[in-house]
Amino acid sequence: GCQRLQADCISGAGPKNPGGKVNEILMSVLSTIRVPRPGDRVHKDECAFSFASPESDGGLYVCMNSFLGFGSKYVERHHVKTGQRAYLHITRTRKTQVSTLHIILLSHTLQVQQWDGEVRQESKHAAELKQLDNGIKIPPCGWKCEVCDLQENLWMNLTDGKVLCGRRYFDGSGGNNHALLHYQQTGYPLAVKLGTITPDGADVYSYDEDDMVLDSKLPEHLSHFGIDMMTMEKRVGEWEVIQESGTTLRPLWGPGLTGMKNLGNSCYLNSVMQVLFTIPDFQTKYVSNIDKVFNEAPSDPTQDFKTQRERDLTHLFNHQKKIITSHMFKALVGRGLPEFSTNRQKDAQEFLLHFINMVERNCRSGLNPSEAFRFLVEEKIVCRQSQKAKYTQRVDYIVQLPVPMDQATNMEELQEAERRREEAESSGAPPSAAPRAQIPFAVCLAALSEPETLTDFWSSAVQAKTTATKITRFASFPDHLVIQIKKFTFGLDWVPKKLDVSIDVPDTLDLSSLRAMGQQPGEELLPEVAPPPLMTPDVEVKALSLSVCLSAPVLDDSTVSQLCEMGFPLEACRKAVYYTGNTGIDAAMNWVMGHMEDPDFSAPLVLPGSSSAPGTTPTESLPEEHLVTIVSMGFSRDQATRALRATNNVLERAVDWIFSHLDDLESMDVSEGGRSGGGSEASREPPPGPRVRDGTGKYELFAFISHMGTSTMCGHYVCHIKKDQQWVIFNDQKVCASEKPPKDLGYLYFYRRVVE
Q: Can you give the residue ranges of the UBA domain (predicted)?
């Protein structure tokens, strides 16, 4: 590097530039070069402002002072902006392999790779494949791995008939590698995937050739183990349907059709971002002003949310490459949050909300694209004893749609399948494939809107607990509506499981009948009186000024015990029961699952009014630097103080807290000690409410994200997006025209308002 630098400098020497001047310039340049220290990030694979890499035209230039990478388009601009003149120029040329394409004409349908349009090659082992006469015969169903008893992702070796599980995926799901290990031990090269065999062919893999292949003698090879191709039917599972396996998909590329490389279980991120990239609010915010973002970027743009978001969006909309890789953005969105900073699989819905939260943080002023999803929910609670009502509103971004399994249209088929499963289990016979529950979308929507009975409601009208009815409606309709199908639930043993359901999600949706009406004429409201505090048995109830001992309900010991038996800390269990008002194990468990990451999750329960309660930290003990940081984001000092007090002075948790309590903060009174001396209470303008858009409740479907696997913690995500009236499937880096979009198997659905 130094020799190259010296040569470049000396090449400018001449009569008007004597050697001394050259040496002076050289020493000046060399003085800016430093050696990376432990902890320094050296960006030698990706440009900070584009997706240029060492393999791109012009290569990559790494600044020898900041170690940031720049493509040829941005290195000169960085030099002008910073004065830096020493860069390491990295170029890399990929070696290409030239292969001859052979098209094999078979007596059955030509087998084609689903994604890249490549015709599978005839295996070199097919014609002379050795098959052992070991007497093994394979049944038409009920297969399981001979080593670990897995019943999915099974492959039969075509030499000895062994049925073994497939490869393990990044996240530990899939198989246990037993089919691969068998090849490594025996050298038997070909295997067929059970469940894909039809009269037209099957999926055959060659371990030796490390590729999917054709086997022109497949009928003969299968017959050796008692399998008649002509009588076999393909077992179509969730993975095959969602990824549209079995159809020839036409690859697409260009602006808006750029794939995103999987960086190790980053499919949840890729799917969510591909959908967001199609929404005009995000395009306007992040695509139109890349030059301004470059000029205003901080010294390390790789750690700046705005810069990296603009970088991704700009190149996904305008880049002609088929694939981009965004290591920096993935690292940035996961910074400080363990659940998004690892290579483990995540819930796409949780990531969407996390990303919206980040956008909210970075858009306190100016255009906020997350407003496209924001809407108001009205909850009306009617005390059945007094018939008086209470109205509250909250902000939300996603509609969570329940799945009433007891209203499946194929209930008889499901019950018969369960009966056969129990019989097979008792007899030791292999189980048959279970049918998928068919749930009407209208039933799910009705379950969302039907009145809910509250059996333990404290009524301020009767000053006692009674029964109430809660009705939830839309107080506003967003420009873009996100619907989550609540497929993931807990079994009786509290083990997470996924519901295998098919829902006839419509292309158009009219929610006008679900608009909130507000207080009705003649309707009386419940008095604004707080309920008595909920006390625990071990807390002494001290007399107040009237020296009266308050009687209050105690914690449900049985619910606390059930939670403790599941392995949760005692204090966390007590808080779960307290904050859910003794309403049962389901509500308490949901509270636990939603607060496990709280810094005070295991801290002792402290009741309101206690001097050591959270939120009573003296102002003097609040870290001033934390206050300054939150205030710099556009919040008042009082709001920052409240957030820090609520989270034990943990900055990152305080920022999350403040964005999840925007409604409360915008309407909160000025705290004591921070009240302005000027102006009266009466002269103050009422605080503004959350900014939401509203319009008609009619929508059309434009995208959906689907999940494959048994849990959000494993499996794979893909998304389908409608572009110019054509559905397109985005499967990480693979982008193709969709032939059969599986709209009934989605997890997150995205609708946009229909403007009349």
A: 554-595, 621-661
